[in-house]
Amino acid sequence: MRLRTACALLLLLTACAEREAPPASAASPAAPPATTPAPDRAVRVDYEAVLAAPGRPAADREQDAWRKPAESLAFFAVQPGMSVLDLFAGAGYYTELLSAAVGPTGHVVAHNNKAYLDGVGDELTRRFADSRLPNVEQVTAEANELVLTPGRFDFVLLSAVYHDVYYVNEARNWPRIDGPRLLAELFEGMKPGATLVVIDHAAPSGSPAETGGTLHRIDPEIVKRDFAAAGFVLDAESDVLRNPADDYTKNVFDPAVRAKTDRFMLRFRRP
Questions:
Q1: Residue 58: is it exposed, middle or buried by C-beta count within 10 angstroms (0-12/13-18/19+)?
Q2: How far apart are CA 48 and CA 77, in angstroms?
Q3: In degrees, to the nearest 5, what angle opens at C-alpha 95 toward C-alphas 181 and 192?
Q4: The pLDDT of residue 20
Q5: Cα-flanking dihedrals φ and ψ of residue 201, to 5°?
Q6: Which terminus of the chain, N or C, has less C-beta within 10 A?
Q7: How far apart are CA 83 and CA 106, in angstroms?
Q8: What's the rounded Cα separation, in Å, for the pair 162 and 200?
Q9: Beta bridge partners of 174
Q10: By C-alpha distance, which of 86, 106, 105 is closest to 95?
Q11: Beta carbons within 8 Å of 248's beta carbon, 6+ residues apart
Q12: What is the helix (H) or strand (E) element at residue 180, kind and residue range?
C-alpha cells in the first residue's frame, strides 16, 4: 500500500508541475541587494540559443517537442537581468531555461513545497549539483505560508500548477490552498508592470473548479476570474500549446493523453 501511494504521489507531481529543487531557503526569499529598474522587454532574445546551451540536461531536451519551450519563452517575454519566480518549480525544467534567459545579471527563485520535493527526489539534486545554476535561489514553503519581498519580481511562472489550488489531499501533504491569499502574495511580490504566466491543462468550458482536484484540469475562465479578482489584468493569450484533439474526460495522468493534453497559456500584468 505504501509503495502504491508513493507512486501515485510521484505521478501527481510530475504531471502537475513538470519541474524541480531541494530546499535551500526559508519561506521568504532573501531580499535582493538593491532595487533595480525593470529590464527593457523590447530587447530581442535568441531563445533557440537558450535551448541549445551546452550542458542542458538530455532529459529536458527530450521534453521539448511537446513543451515547445522556444515559443513559450517568447510568450513569457523574459529578458536578461530580470528577477523571476518559478512557483512550484518541480524538477526545474523551466527553472533551467529561465536561468539561462535572465543571464548572469538576472535572478531566479525556484519555489517548491514538501510534496513537490518528496516527489522529484534526487532529480533536483542533480540539476543543482556543482553550483551549475549560480543565479538560482531555491526556496521551500507551503503555499499558505509563502511570503515574498514586496515589489521584487519582473516575471512569475505557474506551469501546470494553478489547478492544484482546487486540489486537497491531506494524506499526500497537500492541504487546501487559500487561493485569494496566494494571489495577493504574488501581486504584492511583483513590480508594477510585471507579468505572470499561467500554463495549465484545459477543462471544458463551464467545468466546476473542483475539476482541478479530480482530473487536474481547469477551465481557463476560472483562472481569468480568479486573477481579475486579485487585481491582475489579462495581457495576452497563446494557443501554441492547445490541442483540440484532447479527451477532456480523462485525468491528465492517463497514458492516453499524458504529454498531449490541451494546454492554455495566459499572461497577466500587475498594474
A1: exposed
A2: 13
A3: 45
A4: 35
A5: -75, 125
A6: N
A7: 6
A8: 7
A9: 169
A10: 86
A11: 202, 203, 204, 215, 217, 262
A12: helix 179-189
pLDDT at residue 9 in the model: 45
Sign of CA dihedral 194, 259, 143, 24: negative
Per-position pLDDT tens, the chain of length 271:
443 444 444 444 444 544 433 333 444 454 444 445 455 566 778 999 999 998 999 999 999 999 999 999 999 999 999 999 999 999 999 999 999 999 999 999 999 999 999 989 899 999 999 999 999 999 999 999 999 999 999 999 999 999 999 999 998 889 999 999 999 999 999 999 999 999 999 999 999 999 999 999 999 999 999 999 999 999 999 999 999 999 999 999 999 999 999 999 999 999 9
**Collapsing DSSP states into helix, strand and coil, what is residue 21?**
coil
SS3 195: strand
Exposure on the CB side of residue 7, measured as CA atoms within 13 A: 4
CATH of the domain at 215: 3.40.50.150
**Structural domain containing residue 68:** 2-269
Angle between helices 93-102 and 69-76 (to 10 degrees): 60
Total domains in the fold of the chain: 1
Give 3-state DSSP helix, strand, coil % of the chain, rounded to 5.
Answer: 35, 20, 45
CB proximity list for 33: less than 8 A, separation 6 or greater: none
Total-model pTM: 0.86
> What's the burial of 165, exposed, middle or buried (CB within 10 Å: 0-12/13-18/19+)?
buried
